[in-house]
Amino acid sequence: MKKSTIVFLAALLLVSGTASAREVSSHARKAVEAIRQLREIGLSDSAGNASTPPARVPALLRTLNQELRALIVEYLNDQTRVHAVPRDEDIFDELRAAGWQEISNQKWNAYGEIEDIDFEFKDGYDPGLLVATTQLWIPCGSSDPDSAIYVFQGRGRKWDLVLGTESDFNEIGRRQASGMDYKISPPDSSGKWFLVVGHVPPSCKRTENILRYKALRPSLDPDKPTVLVSGREVVSRDFDPAFRLEAHEDWFAMTIGKTRKLDDEPGIEILRYTVSGKEATRIAPLALSPQDFLEQWSQSDWVQAKQWSKESTELFRMARKTTRIGARFSRSRDDAPLHEQK
User: What average pLDDT does the segment 27-47 reach?
Assistant: First the structure.
């Protein structure tokens, strides 16, 4: 091989290498640095019983979430992106290029290992909707985010982030089910939609599993969506999954597995909300059995229950008798439809 050819190839490789180095995202580098620091902290021997993480962990988790989000935004709007359809593997490739070393989940020993990154297109919206979710591993009990949902509007290689929300949840469904679900309503006549999120934060010491839910609309600031409603409900460990969500153009519902207070047996509660503009209003609950019906009415605010019952005085009288007749119901677990013991 001629000397001139060798020099040319060497120069080409040098330029190529320099270009590749320049192409590594700064957000990928910062995310990898956060992961490195989290791995340095590791898990103490008592981490499995701890209710809070080590002091430095929350800030590092927030940094990691922020950099992953920025990396996703950068990736979705990269006009030179090879694949027209976004792929989670492309994000992992960016992290690998920045020095991230993947570890088998069987060897995880630190907060914030990346459990999953996912992209999902939503049909029927104009402009189109794309949902990106990230999941970071939390060994046990933390009030800090380990997962996030980002909703984008756009098409092709132009996507604007319109709504983002984070919390300590994991996604239900396609992968490792544990405690989170979300639904996006179909667009209404004016093209507006809302997001419903429910999650049961992990905790080693919590005696009760608490479902936290909220309904959100996009606002001018994707980090400050309009909160239509938010609340908490105790759910039962005997149900898997512990809850399900359903969203329509102008209402949504949550089906929740609970232990009834009237007879200490498993039951199903169905919470419903109508959505109008920037508000969500609770409407009369539904039930799958007489026991569940009376349970819901007995635990409802009395003023609210009276409002629900205006159209049916008979239902109102039944609700007032709840506390007296609840004990007569069968204590059989067969009374709870949809009940799935773990």
Answer: 85
3-state secondary structure the chain: CCHHHHHHHHHHHHHHHHHHHHHCCHHHHHHHHHHHHHHHHCCCCCHHHCCCCCCCHHHHHHHHHHHHHHHHHHHHCCCCCCCCCCCHHHHHHHHHHCCCCCCCHHHCCCCCCEEEEEEEEECCCCCEEEEEEEEECCCCCCCCCCEEEEEEEEECCEEEEEEEEEECCCECCCCCCCCEEEEECCCCCCCCCCEEEEECCCCCCCCCEEEEEEEEECCCCCCCCEEEEEEEEEECCCCCCCEEEEECCCEEEEEEEEECCCCCCEEEEEEEEEEECCEEEEEEEECCCHHHHHHHHHHCCHHHHHHHHHHCHHHHHHHHCHHHHHHHCCCCHHHCCCCCCC
Greater confidence (22 vs 110) lies with: 110
Q: What is the pLDDT of residues 283-296, one digit of tens each?
A: 887 778 888 878 87
pLDDT per residue as tens digits for the range 117-158: 999 999 999 999 999 999 888 776 544 457 789 999 999 999
Residue 305: which pLDDT band, with cuts at 50, 70 and 90?
low
246-277 confidence digits (pLDDT tens): 999 999 999 999 988 888 888 899 999 999 99
Closest CA to 140 of 204, 199, 201: 204
